[in-house]
Design goal:
The protein is mainly beta. It contains two helices and 47 strands. The chain has four domains: 307 residues, no CATH class; 121 residues, Immunoglobulin-like; 112 residues, Sandwich (Immunoglobulin-like), CATH 2.60.40; 85 residues. The N terminus is likely disordered.
Amino acid sequence: MAERILGPQGSKRRTRFLWVPMLAIAALALLFAVGAQAVHDTGAFELDGNATNGAALGDDWDNVCHQATGTGCSTTSNTNGATAVSWVAELNTNATIFTGGGSKDPQDINNWAWKDGAGGLPDKDNLLHSFAARYNTTEGDVLFFGSDRLDNSGDAQQGFWFFQNPVGLGNNSVGGGSGFTGVHQTGDVLVISDFSNGGTTSTITVYKWDPSCKKTGGTCGDANLRTLGTSTNAKCSTAAANDAFCGIVNPGTITMPWSFTDKSGTANNGALNGEFYEGGINLTNLGLAGECFSSVASETRSSTSTTATLKDFVLGNFGHCGSTTVTQQSVSGTVGTSGYPSTSIGTGSVTVSDQATVSVTNATTWAGNVQFHLRGPIGAANETSVDIGAAQPVSNSSPTANSPGTNTVTSAGDYCWSATFTPTTDHITGSSDDGTNECFTVNPVTPSLPTTAGDDVSLGSAVTDTAALSGTSNQPGSPVINPTTAGAAAGGTITFALYKADCTTPATGTAGTLSFTVSGDNTYGPASFTPDAAGTYHWKATYAPATGDPNNVGSTYNSNCTDANEDVVVSTVASSMSSAQSFIPNDSATITAPSGGNLAGSVKFEVFANATCTGASIYDQTVTVSGASPQTVHTTNTTVSTTAANVSWRLTYTSTNSAQRSISANCFEKTGLTIDNGGTISSGP
C-alpha cells in the first residue's frame, strides 16, 4: 500500500537537515533558501516502495510503463502530466555491462566502455528494468527514477545519471570494449544511493557535472562532480515534508506491474524485499529547475564512492530537449489564388506583422531569441528577403514575441514570414516556422476609369471625352519591404478610341489627342476626334499601367458600348435657299463715217443702275475702234452684275481721225425689267 501523502510543512521542519555531514553544508544552504519544496509529497507521484498506482495518490511506474510502451504494464492509463518518461527493459543479464578502467563517474562519457556477454556479474548488481519520469509540480521541478534487479542478496549501491546531451551506445573501441556516444555537459545530474540493513537505511548524495571541480575538496565531491546535497536519512517513508531528495526500496514482496522474474523465481511477477528501488529529487531545490535532460542511465556500482567500479547499466532516452516555434502572420483576408489569406495593396502600402510562440519540451526554465524574416514578392524580379529588426527575446515566462516595428510591403504578390528561435539556454535545440500560416498575398488594385463624353455636335465639329482615374496604387518602393525610397504615383497611359454605332468599327475622320500620360488619381483629357460622317458614335477608354508595375491592373471602360453617357451623335443641319436675280449688263455700238478714211478712236461705255445715267456708274469700259467704216464694238463685262429694275447706258465716241468728228456722251439707252425672285425654299427638317 502507498503511504499517505503529506502536505508541505513550514520552515520549523528545516532544522533537521543541519545535521548532515559537513561536506554538504554549503550545498544544503542552497536547498533551503527557496522554501519547503518536498519531493515525496508533491501529489504527482507515489514514492511508496511499490510500482503500482494506488487510488488517488498520483502516478506510479505502471503508468510510466504504459506511456512509454503502450502494453504489458497492468494498466491502460498513461501518466497524468509527466513531461518526460523512460521505461527500459533489459532482460538479458549478460547485456550492456561496464568494462575498462575509464568507466568511472568522474570521467567523461567518451572514456566509458561497455560490452555484452561478459558474464560473472553479481546477480544483485544485474538490473532488469530502469525507469524515470519528470513533472512540473507546485512543489517544484521534480525527477523520479527507479529500477528493479535480479537478486536482493546483499546491499545495493545504485547511481542514476541524467544527461543533457543524448547518450547512446557506440561501436568505437574504448578500453577493451565499445565506447559511448555523447559527452557530459555542465549541469548533468548524478544521484548515488545506498540501501543497507534490508533497505531500512538510505544514504543519497546528489552531484552535478561541473568541470571547474578539479579535485576533491569543499563542495567538490570529486573531479568534475560538485556535491549538491547528501543525507544518511533519505528514506522517503520517513523523510521530512521538505525533503529535496529521497529513495525507498520495497520493504517486502510486491507484485510488479510488468513481466518480472527474479533469481528466486518468485511467483506472480513477485519482487522480494530490496529488488525494487525508486527515488526522486527536487531540481528546483537543487538549483537545476528547467534543466533539460535527453537521456537517463541507471547503474550498479561496487560502493557509493564516486570512484567505485561501475557494473551493470541500463540506458534510455528521456526527454527531447527540443523547441517548437508556432507563428501567425497578421493578414487574415479572403484566401487568394495562391491559397494564402490576402489583402489589397490599397494606395501602395500594406502594414504587416508576425507573431511567434515558442514552446520547449522537458525544460521549465529557458530563454532565447526569435528572429523574424520576411521574403517577397516571391518569384518577382523585385523579390526582397530581409531580417525584420533585431531578434526578440523570449523565455518560459514570456514565450510569445511580435515582429518589431511597423513593417510595410509596397508591391503586390506573395510574401512569406519566417521566425527562427535560437536558444540561449544550453542544450535546447532551436526551431523555426515558415509554414503556410506564415504566407499571405497582396492583391493589386483595379483603378476606376469612369469617362464623360462631351456634347453632341454637327458634322465637321470634334467630339470629346474625359476620364476621371481613381483608386490607383503607388508603384513599389525601394526596396519593396520597408522601403527607404517611396514608390512613384501610378504611371502608364489612358488611351481613348471612338467607334461607330456597331461598337466594333473605328470611326474615320481626323483624330485629335487620344492618349494621355498618367500620374496617379486625376482627370485626363479631353480627347478629341472629328468624324467624317454623321451618325452615333461610342467612346471607349483604356488604362495601361506603367511597364513592370504590379500594383495596378489595366482596365477598359465602356468596352461593350453600354454606357449611354459615352454616346455622342454627329448630325447634319436643315438648309434653306432664297433666290435673288441679277444681271450682267453688256452693250455694243456701231460707228459709221461715210468718208474720211478708216475709223480710228474709241467708244466709252458707262452703265448706271437707273434710267437717267446719273450718279456713279456701276461699270464702264473703253473699247478701241479701228478699220473701215462701219465698225461694231462690244463690252466684255463678266463680273459686274446688278439687280436694278432700270438700267441706262451712256456712250461717248472719241475719234482720233481728224477727218471724222467725235460723238459726245449721250444717255440714249434705257432698259426696264420686271423681277420676281419667288421667295425661300427649304431642305426640310
